[in-house]
């Protein structure tokens, strides 16, 4: 049978003084000593300085940063092709979430698809027509054949170009062609353009991107890029 305490009995238990009992020492005790974290770092730095390793680590860090700047890490390593093709890429973007104003009202709903080259896809159709006036060129700067291909085409190029390396040292190529060079560090642009081979040229073609592969070893590719 389950027994229940009356309210009076419960109150009596709560008001009764509690007495502690000493069970003695069952094991040795030690004071808690916690070293200051900043002091530990300072001591470590002093030790590295005394042993001469601090200057060594500083130089190593500088060399690492310099190497990463001069030769960024490759995100995707593309091959060349002897059977180049040309294809269109849809630049449309679809909103993953609702875009709201400062009052919380939805102004652009989730799922809205917009083509930056097609004003009719914008809300209210009041956007300006976007014309991308440059040509993008992706290539491997470590491959002599691709660099030679680039130089030949730049001699006949009429459109402003933006050079983007997928491999190589941008500063070296900048000196060779006397033009600013960029590097595809994340691979995001290559994925968006569905790049499989380099070199490739990319330009706006109406409401789409026109991606054209090139064979750097094919002599007849010399001339103005269409």
Helix/strand layout:
Blueprint: H1 7-15, H2 37-51, H3 53-70, E1 86-89, E2 93-94, E3 99-100, E4 106-108, E5 113-114, E6 135-140, H4 144-154, E7 161-167, H5 170-177, E8 181-183, H6 188-192, E9 200-205, E10 208-213
Parallel strand pairs: 6-7, 7-8
Antiparallel strand pairs: 1-10, 2-5, 3-4, 6-9, 9-10
Give a brief outline of the structure.
This protein has six helices and ten strands, in the order αααββββββαβαβαββ. With 226 residues, it is an alpha+beta fold. The strands form three sheets. It has a six-stranded mixed β-sheet, covered by helices on one side. Strands 2-5 form a two-stranded antiparallel ribbon. It has a two-stranded antiparallel sheet with strand order 3-4.
């Amino acid at each position: 049978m389950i027994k229940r305490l009356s309210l009076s009995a419960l109150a009596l238990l709560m008001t009764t003084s509690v007495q502690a009992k000493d069970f003695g020492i069952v094991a040795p005790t030690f004071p808690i000593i916690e070293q200051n974290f900043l002091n530990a770092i300072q001591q470590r730095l002093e030790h590295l300085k005394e042993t001469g390793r601090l200057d060594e680590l500083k130089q190593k860090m500088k060399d690492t940063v310099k190497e990463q700047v001069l030769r960024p890490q490759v995100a995707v390593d593309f091959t060349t092709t002897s059977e180049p093709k040309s294809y269109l890429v849809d630049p449309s973007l679809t909103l993953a979430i609702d875009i709201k104003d400062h009052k919380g009202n939805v102004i652009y709903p989730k799922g809205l698809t917009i083509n930056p080259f097609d004003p009719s896809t914008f809300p209210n159709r009041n956007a300006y027509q976007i014309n991308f006036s440059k040509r993008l060129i992706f290539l491997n700067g470590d491959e002599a054949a691709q660099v030679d291909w680039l130089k030949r085409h730049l001699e006949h190029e009429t459109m402003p170009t933006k050079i983007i390396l997928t491999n190589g040292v941008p500063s070296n190529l900048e000196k060779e062609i006397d033009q600013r060079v960029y590097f595809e560090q994340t691979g995001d642009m290559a994925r968006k353009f569905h790049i499989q081979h380099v070199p490739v040229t990319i330009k706006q073609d109406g409401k789409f991107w026109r991606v054209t592969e090139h064979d750097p070893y094919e002599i007849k590719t010399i001339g103005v890029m269409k």
